[in-house]
Amino acid sequence: MTENEKEEQRRKTDEYNASQIQVLEGLEAVRKRPGMYIGSTSVQGLHHLVWEIIDNGIDEALAGFADTIHVTVEKDNSITIVDNGRGIPTDIQEKTGKPALETVFTILHAGGKFGGGGYKVSGGLHGVGASVVNALSTELDVTVTRDGKKYYMDFKRGHVNTKMKFVGDDDPDNHGTKVHFLPDPDIFTETTTYNIKTLTERIRELAFLNKGLKISLRDNRPEEPTYEEFHYEGGIKHYVEYIDSEKTPLFEEPIYVEGMENDISVEVALQYTDDYHSEMRTFTNNIHTIEGGTHEEGFKRALTRVINDYARKNNLLKEKDDNLTGPDVREGLTAVISVKHPDPQFEGQTKTKLGNSDARTATDHIFSEHFAKFLFENPTLGKQIVEKGALASRVRAAAKRAREVTRKKSGLEISNLPGKLANNTSRDPEISELFIVEGDSAGGSAKQGRSRLTQAILPIRGKILNVQKATMDKILANEEIRSMFTAMGTGFGNDFDIEKVHYHKLIIMTDADVDGAHIQTLLLTLIYNYMRPLIDAGYVYIAQPPLYRLQQGKMIRYIANDDELEQWKAQLPASPKPSISRYKGLGEMDAEQLWDTTMNPDNRRLQRVEAKDAAQAAEIFDMLMGNKVEPRRKFIEENATFVENLDI
Question: What residues does Mg(2+) 1 bind to (predicted)?
Answer without folding.
Answer: 438, 511
